[in-house]
Automatic annotation (TrEMBL):
Organism whose genome encodes this protein: Salipiger thiooxidans
Family label: Belongs to the ABC transporter superfamily.
Domain of life, per lineage: Bacteria
Presence of the UniProt keyword Coiled coil in the record: no
Keywords: Amino-acid transport, ATP-binding, Nucleotide-binding, Transport
Domain called ABC transporter: residue spans: 2-231
Record protein name field: Amino acid/amide ABC transporter ATP-binding protein 2, HAAT family (TC 3.A.1.4.-)
A GO biological process held by the record: L-amino acid transport
Signal peptide span: none
GO molecular function, one term: ATP binding
Length: 231
């Protein structure tokens, strides 16, 4: 289980996160939501080692992760699918996928077939450049690249942003399938309320860098959560 306790984060003199706490369990989707600019992406960057946090702690199965950089976080089993996808535009789909090998031993430097079962279109486009893909195809590639790392924790930042409806549905099915495997904790940052509501096992609503509301599916009030997203 991933545990975040009292996390604070600054950009220069500006404090962005004010004591955020949450947990993410294997076989569960934890949704983090809120309006633009409240610190959701900063939270994921801190967990993924993309930006140093100022205080608090991040632990995985009780082991402190202690201000890891991105490579160390990847080696620890944390994979990050960033907002905007960050696909390498001049590299082929095959080469983009192979960048996921960086955190794996050389004996595991092979794209597993189940990646193409989740995202069949990628197998047809292996020699196409990442920058030539549509937004939805790039999103599939970004998620596939993260899965090649064999993560214990998968961080998804706005995976539906700018994506056509049929690809959104496919991404939802992939997230459900990954959850059902039971060995991966998924943290989903999302503003598309119905998508998030239909997938998540627990919810964390963030306002001004603080947790404004949290609870498990079935216990949290839908309208109260929606109000926090719509502020």
């Amino acid at each position: 289980m991933l545990s975040v306790e009292n996390l604070t984060l600054h950009y220069g003199q500006s404090q962005i996160l004010h004591g955020i706490s949450l947990t993410a369990e294997p076989g569960k989707v934890t949704a983090v939501t809120g309006t633009n600019g409240v610190g959701k992406t900063s939270l994921l960057k801190a967990i993924a080692g993309r930006h140093p946090y100022s205080g608090g702690s991040i632990t995985l199965d009780g082991k402190p992760l202690d201000h890891l950089n991105a490579f160390q976080a990847g080696r620890a089993g944390i994979a990050y699918v960033p907002q905007g996808r960050e696909v390498f535009p001049l590299m082929t789909v095959q080469e983009n996928l192979e960048t996921g090998f960086a955190c794996l031993p050389k004996s595991e430097h092979k794209v597993p077939e189940h990646i193409f079962e989740l995202f069949p279109i990628l197998k047809d486009f292996l020699q196409r450049r990442g920058g030539d893909l549509s937004g939805g195809q790039q999103q599939q590639l970004a998620i596939a690249r993260a899965l090649i790392m064999k993560p214990r924790v998968l961080l998804l930042d706005e995976p539906t942003e700018g994506i056509q409806p049929n690809i959104i549905q496919q991404i939802g099915r992939v997230i459900s399938q990954l959850r059902s495997q039971g060995d991966m904790a998924i943290i989903l940052v999302e503003q598309y309320f119905d998508f998030m509501w239909g997938l998540a096992d627990s919810f964390v609503a963030v306002t001004r860098g603080e947790v404004a509301l949290s609870g498990k599916a079935g216990e949290i009030d839908r309208e109260a959560l929606l109000a926090k997203v719509s502020i």
